[in-house]
Amino acid sequence: MLVTGASGFIGRRLAPALLDAGFDVRAMTRNPDTYEGAGTPVFGDVSDAATLAEPLTGIDIAYYMVHSLDSGDFERKDAEAARAFSQAAAALGVRQIVYMGGLGDEADGLSPHLRSRREVEKLLGESGVPVTVLRAAIVVGHGGISWEITRQLVDRLPAMVAPRWVKTRTQPIAVDDVVRYLVGVADHEDAVDRVFEIGGPDQLDYIGMLREASKVAKGHAPPIVPVPVLTPRLSSYWLAFVTDVDRMTSRNLVDSMGTEVVVKDHSIRDIVPGEPLSYAEAVRRALAERAQEQADDLAAQSADAEAAARSGSTGETPA
Fold first, then answer.
1. Residue 144 structural domain
2. How far apart (Å, rounded) are the C-alpha atoms in residues 228 and 36?
């Protein structure tokens, strides 16, 4: 297995899950010398076709988990990268590519972000390697951009004047379930060359997501008033001001939030059985992981401070 984007939000969870499932995992990264995740690190950059031969040599199944959402030119960059990856995978005998795409009905008119995801699906398969696509809406888990927007809005605002898109329906899914599905379709003959829709059991509008997340985090829901005057451009400035997410990423995400993204095809359940986690449970797990990471960071800082203090008291130079 090759996992691209192995240091990313989903990739860093997928690589160890594949190892646990008994697969030999190669982690493609632009910084193999500093990579600390699961799998054998190998240098590769999807934006540089010349670097793809080494990571793809000897690979049976490749997970394509990269995108350029933080770029104003993301559609062109993602298309060029997908085309180069497809050609290299075909030339080196890869048997299956697995890709995470986005939900949304093309008849409704997709945003540039979602339209780009569909284009990448097609480009990954244009050289003949069968592609398995999992289409999802918001993935809930610590470190995910969409989830971070939700968490920070809930954490920082006692009340909200929100854009119209907060009333759009979506079907969030826990990152644990995303990883379970990604592992489950690997080398599965009934999953090859197919598109699956994945989501949790709850269909909510964005107001519902914000309120439910607030109940889990704080025990109560904030007042939220949708207003018609916040354009996508103003919404992106609003999100960038209130949260840590940069404006370019915010704008690209906001453009997609007016599109309903719900699961209409449940055939993934036939391939990977099991009940997905509720939105509330996904939120609880995301918050718990963040709290644990903060505790670990604090403990590490304390240990470093104690070591520095001991070194200073003995006149030794810290290693």
1. 2-289
2. 46
Residues 85-137: pLDDT tens digits? Answer: 999 999 999 999 999 999 988 766 677 778 888 999 999 999 999 999 999 99
Task: Give the number of domains in the chain.
Answer: 1
- Contact by Cβ (8 Å): 110, 145: no
Report pLDDT digits (tens) over 193-234: 999 999 999 999 888 898 899 999 988 877 777 666 555 566
Pick left, alpha or beta for residue 39 (phi over 0 → left; psi -120 to 50 → alpha; otherwise beta). left
Residue 318 lies inside a defined structural domain of this protein: no
In a domain, 279, yes or no: yes
CATH number (domain holding residue 285): 3.40.50.720
Chain position carrying tokens 């915010």: 250
Quick check: is 309 in a domain? Answer: no
